[in-house]
Amino acid sequence: MAFAPVDYDAALRACARGDENAFQRLYEHEAPRMLALGLSMLGQRASAEELLRDTFTLIWKNADSFDEGSGTGRAWMYSILRYRALKRLRQAARNPLPDAGIGDDIPDGGGSGGAPDGSLLEALSHLDETQRLPILMAFYKGYTYEQIALRMKVPAIQLKTRVQVGLSLLRELRQA
């Protein structure tokens, strides 16, 4: 079933006014992707489904706090999901580092992997592996600098510098 493109900012403004149809459109359009991200971060389907419900509850309740000047509506929605997932990982006091390999279940950022031109994954493909991998590990898995540094066997301060340089390059690429 194909969905028409969604204007996230307009839909969030409509949600703030109590428009349940706009909320339903947002849910139908983004819930599958958000569930997949939640599952990749939490590793358990039941936890990911609960995270998705909590996230959309917060989106509905807080739609009026969305500020278009701070970023896109879609990014705002995903930030809610991501921060809630990271909070759950910390509250569970479990080590989010699986026994799997360092980059398992993380998109490779390859430019020819079907990512549309101008997408974040396409921009990531322009970064050096030492910059790209820690950025992806932090976003997709919620790893801290210290955890990533330990896994990559580099000092945390060196890793922070690599990430900061990588993020600066991403900003430049996205603005170009």
Search tags:
Rna Polymerase Sigma Factor, Chain: A, 176 residues, globular, Arc Repressor Mutant, subunit A, mainly alpha
Structure in words:
- With 176 residues, this protein is an all-alpha fold.
- The chain is built from eight helices and no strands.
- 25% of the residues are buried.
Distance between the termini: 34 Å
- In the CATH classification, which architecture of the largest domain applies? Orthogonal Bundle
**SSE order, one letter for each helix or strand:** HHHHHHHH
Shape: globular
According to CATH, the fold-level topology of the largest domain is Rna Polymerase Sigma Factor, Chain: A
Total domain modules: 2
Give the oligomeric state.
single chain
Q: What is the beta-strand fraction?
A: under 5%
Rg computed from alpha carbons, rounded to a whole number of angstroms:
17 Å
Write a brief structural summary.
By secondary structure, the chain is mostly helical. It contains 8 helices and no strands.
Draw up the topology in text.
Elements lengths: L7 H9 L3 H23 L2 H18 L10 H19 L28 H5 L4 H13 L3 H8 L3 H20 L1
